[in-house]
């Protein structure tokens, strides 16, 4: 059985936890070491038990304490070459034996887990999402993506669980205090995913074995958790989908989620 917990999700820091029978991993490490440890403790785990850290891309809200965590606890880190080359200087403490390079769209193994990184459209060196399999179930992590295309939809098919970005509400973004250039970047093809796009993506996957979704990476300024949630519900109803067939939740930027059993 796979288990998932969003320790923290949002522009103030991202860190996700995945557990299988014999393996515990983090996806990103974009908040403080103290908060990572507190989050793990809240789900009866610890940083000493982490077998690896997977990195989606180099932005600080995804790698803030990566170097410190890897260095202090001797944890292997996995990222593609372009991300390694773009990671900020403060991550240079990572020991050479803990540097592992993967290629997007090629599987690699972590104990009994098969990891499949897939490319995502984001303003980064070579950002990616992850499919994680334990031989029986598949979960997917897809955040920091400016749009959904057929290739990404294909990657998300047959996932029992998805953490999917639902970053902003278009109408709120339009009237926010953000400068125009930043609004354009967020809503652009290499920015972030809107509530509308997230809901349409979920709806299109409902006949592809999807059982549970957690909306993640919500903007503090340009979204409301209840609105992101309701947008998905409305989309499912509009498409005559039984809303009881999907478990839906929203990841917090401040607190760990419940543990999802997949």
Write up this protein.
The chain has 262 residues and is an alpha/beta fold. The chain has a single domain (3-261), classed as Metallo-beta-lactamase, Chain A, CATH 3.60.15. 28% of the residues lie in helices and 24% in strands. It has nine helices and 14 strands. The protein has helices spanning 33-42, 60-63, 66-73, 81-86, 150-156, 170-175, 180-187, 195-204, 225-238, and strands spanning 3-8, 15-19, 24-27, 52-54, 77-80, 99-102, 108-110, 113-119, 128-133, 138-142, 161-165, 212-216, 247-250, 260-261. The strands form two sheets. A seven-stranded mixed β-sheet has the order 6-5-4-3-2-1-14. Strands 7-8-9-10-11-12-13 form a seven-stranded mixed β-sheet. Helix 8 crosses helix 9. The radius of gyration is 17 Å and the shape is globular.
Summarize the structure.
This protein has 262 residues and is of the alpha/beta class.
């Amino acid at each position: 059985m796979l288990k998932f917990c969003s320790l923290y999700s949002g522009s103030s820091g991202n860190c996700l936890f995945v557990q299988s029978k014999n393996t515990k991993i983090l996806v990103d490490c974009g908040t403080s070491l103290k908060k990572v440890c507190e989050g793990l403790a809240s789900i009866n785990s610890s940083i000493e038990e982490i077998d690896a850290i997977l990195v989606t891309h180099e932005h600080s809200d995804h790698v803030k304490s990566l170097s410190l965590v890897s260095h202090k606890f001797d944890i292997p880190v996995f990222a593609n070459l372009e991300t390694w080359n773009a990671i900020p200087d403060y991550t240079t403490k990572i020991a050479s034996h803990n540097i592992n390079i993967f290629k997007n769209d090629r599987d690699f193994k972590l104990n009994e887990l098969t990891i499949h990184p897939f490319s995502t459209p984001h303003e980064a060196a070579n950002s990616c999402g992850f499919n994680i399999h334990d031989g029986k179930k598949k979960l997917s992590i897809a955040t920091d993506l400016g749009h959904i295309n057929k290739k990404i939809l294909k990657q998300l098919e047959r996932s029992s669980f998805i953490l999917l970005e639902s970053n902003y509400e278009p109408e709120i973004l339009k009237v926010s205090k953000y400068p125009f250039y930043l609004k354009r970047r967020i809503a652009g093809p290499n920015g972030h995913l809107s509530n509308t796009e997230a809901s349409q993506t979920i709806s299109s996957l409902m006949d592809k074995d999807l059982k549970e979704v957690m909306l993640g990476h919500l903007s503090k300024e340009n979204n409301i958790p209840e609105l992101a949630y309701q947008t998905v519900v409305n989309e499912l109803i509009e498409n005559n989908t039984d809303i009881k067939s999907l478990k839906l939740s929203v990841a917090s930027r401040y607190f760990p989620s419940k543990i999802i059993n997949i």
